[in-house]
Design the sequence.
């Protein structure tokens, strides 16, 4: 997830202009090659709001998730013309244990504070990776919203990039 320093993942209007950073951190490392990182992902899971936003943005920028299998969690009757997109409504534990684990090694949850909340509450994620951009938004959609339970984490990696972005990786303590 990409987040502002104050923990927001989107502005209220869903604009992404704040994703661009012209900050400079001399001690930082060069960013990893996004294409190489994306090759490690076997499947994406996203909520319907994230899916609809991605569809809207894909008109200008293309579909960012390529041909990888993508599961959209929704109770609504959404449509797609892409072969690699499925819609799912139901038990998330069953989805993870019976469908995802046997088929995929690295499943990436894309966006959404409600989706994040549900996966954390159900203890069906292994890791949280957040890239903190050097900006305070002051308002917007929070990354962690109404989780309503404590969750211990173990810091497993940190990276500071030359563009001022800091990436924190936490393992979920079970």
Sequence:
């Amino acid at each position: 997830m990409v987040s502002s320093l104050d923990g927001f993942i989107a502005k209220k209007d869903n604009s992404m202009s704040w994703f661009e950073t012209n900050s400079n951190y001399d001690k930082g490392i060069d960013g990893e090659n996004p294409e190489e990182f994306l090759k490690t992902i076997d499947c994406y899971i996203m909520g319907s709001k994230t899916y609809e936003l991605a569809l809207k943005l894909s008109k200008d920028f293309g579909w960012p998730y390529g041909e990888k299998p993508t599961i959209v969690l929704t109770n609504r009757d959404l449509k797609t013309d892409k072969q690699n997109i499925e819609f799912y409504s139901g038990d998330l534990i069953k989805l993870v244990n019976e469908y995802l684990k046997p088929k995929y090694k690295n499943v990436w949850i894309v966006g959404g504070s409600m989706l994040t909340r549900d996966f954390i509450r159900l203890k069906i994620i292994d890791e949280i990776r957040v890239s903190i951009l050097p900006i305070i938004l002051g308002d917007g959609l929070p990354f962690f919203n109404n989780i309503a339970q404590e969750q211990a984490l173990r810091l497993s990696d940190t990276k500071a990039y030359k563009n001022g972005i800091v990436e924190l990786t936490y393992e979920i303590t079970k």
About this structure: The domain at 39-111 is CATH 3.40.430.10 (Dihydrofolate Reductase, subunit A). The CA atoms of residues 131 and 166 lie 6 Å apart. Strands lie at 2-4, 8-10, 43-47, 70-73, 85-88, 107-110, 127-133, 141-142, 153-160, 166-172. The two ends are 21 Å apart (CA to CA).
